[in-house]
């Protein structure tokens, strides 16, 4: 081994596992998520034939320890941890060489271990939401809007615009870290790659805050962030402007076609099987998980060999406590949008969401069972298993809750 090779190997050995995973993902190394840190180093060395061929950049990690390690779980500390983690996915010393036919030069930092930036092929940005400049912040918006106006990149077939989605991610984090102070556990149950369906209890009464917070949790807390594509009802595809924005930030329509596309391309799909019954629950039924229908989410997950990860969410059903439900308001909605299937509308008194502390717990995944998808009775049994798992977790989380705020 040459002296230069030894130095390059040493640089790899100083990296965090998440940084090594990013390099391995750029080289499409199989089985990387199951490798230890030492195995990742050896695999990266072997992938390029020599360690000298791997261009790396060390990152200071002294202040990048997880907040839980030092007991500091303040919003500022969690934001710093996220900032360091995201910065490890880009190489700010090198810039993307992509140039348009009109002479527009990209200039964004490249993905670590790749030759291009996130927008132009350095990573599958439709699945791994790496910030384009390596961090989130208002100071990055001029760069983002520059690329948005030039349209120098592609959106996916369902309309996801990575630039618009990054702006939404930054804004959502104000609620996630500072307002709702979301606590997350059970992240080890989320697959680091490949398709999966994440199914949770639903609430909110006015806006789907749980969809926003669930997507932010998957992007903010995983070592390598993933993008959660949440399935929404008809109204998000009917309202002017809202329907376009919903698609651009990564949402999908509650149709077989959209879900098939996402799972067949290895995406994470978020669903709320309670549907409108859960979303419009009155406050006295809060955290009582409603029936999950006939198990359509399990059936489609089985068709794509995708695991189903139940998730229990505490907080969403108290942001806008519903003091009642009205069939008359629902009739008015159907008068404007006849395609809507809403039967009751929640009546809330607070126009501003309450600063409730949130708690999200991901539960062990259910493995796909193709044979079970054929048997409707077995499918209903498995659907009820998911519902009961979420209900049990909610009861435990509420029993151990010290304060709503």
Q: Regarding quaternary structure, how should these chains be classified?
A: single chain
Largest sheet report:
7 strands, mixed
CATH superfamily of the largest domain: Glycerol-3-phosphate (1)-acyltransferase
Order of strands in the sheet with most strands: 3-11-8-4-7-5-6
Name of the CATH class of the largest domain: Alpha Beta
Topology-level CATH name of the largest domain: Glycerol-3-phosphate (1)-acyltransferase
Q: What's the structural domain tally?
A: 2
Q: Roughly what is the average pLDDT, rounded to an integer? A: 83
Total helical elements: 15
CA-to-CA gap between the ends?
Answer: 59 Å
Quickly give the structural class: alpha/beta
Proportion of β residues? 5-15%
CATH architecture of the largest domain: 3-Layer(aba) Sandwich
Give a written overview of the molecule.
- This protein is an alpha/beta fold and 405 residues long.
- The chain folds into two domains: 1-58, no CATH class; 170-399, 3-Layer(aba) Sandwich (Glycerol-3-phosphate (1)-acyltransferase), CATH 3.40.1130.10.
- It is 39% helix and 12% strand.
- The protein contains 15 helices and eleven strands.
- It has helices at residues 3-14, 17-26, 37-47, 67-70, 75-87, 141-150, 162-179, 209-221, 242-248, 256-264, 276-279, 296-303, 327-336, 370-374, 376-399; strands at 90-95, 109-111, 183-185, 196-200, 228-232, 252-253, 268-271, 308-314, 322-326, 345-348, 359-362.
- The longest helix is centred in the last third of the chain and has 24 residues, at 376-399.
- The chain is globular, with a radius of gyration of 22 Å.
- 42% of the residues are buried.
- The model is unreliable at 1-7 and 49-70 (pLDDT under 50).
């Amino acid at each position: 081994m040459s002296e230069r090779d030894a130095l390059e190997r040493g640089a790899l050995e100083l990296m965090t596992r998440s940084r090594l995973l990013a390099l391995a993902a750029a080289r499409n190394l199989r089985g990387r998520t199951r490798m230890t840190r030492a195995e990742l180093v050896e695999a990266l060395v072997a992938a390029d034939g020599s360690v000298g061929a791997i261009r790396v950049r060390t990152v200071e990690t002294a202040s990048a320890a997880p907040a839980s390690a030092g007991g500091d779980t303040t919003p500022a500390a969690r934001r710093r941890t996220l900032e360091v983690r995201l910065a490890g996915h880009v190489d700010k010393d090198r810039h993307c060489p992509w140039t348009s036919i009109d002479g527009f030069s990209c200039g964004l930092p490249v993905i670590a271990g790749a030759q291009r930036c996130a927008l132009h092929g350095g990573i599958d940005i439709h699945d791994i939401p790496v910030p384009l400049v390596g961090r989130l912040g208002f100071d990055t918006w001029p760069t983002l809007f520059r690329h948005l106006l030039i349209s120098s990149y592609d959106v996916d077939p369902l309309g996801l615009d990575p630039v618009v989605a990054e702006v939404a991610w930054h804004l959502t984090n104000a609620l996630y870290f500072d307002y709702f102070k979301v606590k997350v556990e059970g992240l080890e149950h989320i697959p680091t790659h490949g398709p999966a369906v994440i199914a949770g209890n639903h609430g909110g009464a006015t806006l789907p805050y749980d969809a926003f917070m669930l997507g932010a949790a998957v992007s903010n807390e995983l070592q390598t962030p993933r993008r959660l594509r949440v399935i929404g009802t008809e109204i998000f595809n009917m309202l002017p402007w809202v329907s376009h924005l919903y698609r651009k930030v990564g949402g999908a329509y509650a149709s077989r076609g959209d879900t098939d596309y996402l799972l067949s391309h290895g995406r994470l799909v978020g669903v709320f099987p309670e549907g409108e019954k859960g979303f419009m629950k009155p406050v006295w039924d809060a955290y009582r998980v409603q029936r999950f229908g006939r198990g359509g989410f399990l059936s489609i997950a089985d068709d794509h060999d995708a695991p189903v990860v139940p998730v229990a969410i505490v907080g969403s059903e108290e942001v806008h406590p519903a003091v009642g439900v009205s069939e008359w308001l629902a009739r008015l909605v159907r008068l404007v949008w006849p395609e809507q299937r809403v039967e009751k509308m929640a009546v809330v008194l607070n126009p501003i969401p309450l600063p409730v502390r949130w708690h999200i717990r991901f539960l062990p995944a259910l493995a796909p069972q193709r044979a079970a998808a054929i048997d409707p009775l077995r499918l209903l049994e498995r659907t009820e298993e998911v519902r009961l798992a979420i209900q049990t977790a909610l009861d435990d989380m509420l029993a151990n809750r010290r304060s709503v705020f």
